[in-house]
Here is the input.
Amino acid sequence: MPIEKIQISKDSKILFIGDSITDVRFNRRKRFTIKGKDVYALQLKRRFKKYSKDIKVEIKGVASNRTYHVYDRLTSDCISLKPDVIIMLIGVNDAWENYVPENYPPLLRPMEPHIREVYRRIRTELPNTQILYLMPFLIDAVEEKFPYHKTLDEFREVLKSIALENGATVLDLQEVFYQAQKSIDPVRLAVDGIHPTNLGHKVMADAIEKVLEFK
Here is the structure.
């Protein structure tokens, strides 16, 4: 089934929001370890500017964010900006916290009600805004993390279902990276399996661009 495309006009306001994978400062700070300072949002911003200099881009990634953090900052980092398009990547940290609960305090703010409220507010306060939800992923670069797929997939199914219920376009980045790994060594895509390298970010940007339609 083809993915419904996101419409981009010459004066669109585009917001990228998410966790460390979208956090430009985090990736620049960690550039020597995770090798991913050219974040997918920055790559797409350059491509947008080639299409139209009037496109406005905001990048609001915050390292370690879970869905409730996005909920907490939704007014300042989303609603008040009045974007025409929201590209959101969130959920991997919620799943990780569940996968290794011994490393975290008891989970007091579960994912599902917060992501539902994020969508409710966007649909209520920004009714004409298009949403592209990027499903979280694990790149198979670190064998010890392979079992995490099971936990992540459980969270991904819930996140996908809620996104579709709210009319968002959904791009499954896990499938994108499964395909990429057939011809590219996973370590070249993400040294730690979670945070993409520059090449990994390019794979993301290429996949995202394919679901955008420029008017």
Observations:
- The mean pLDDT is 96.
- The first strand starts at residue 6 and ends at 8.
- The first helix runs from residue 24 to 29.
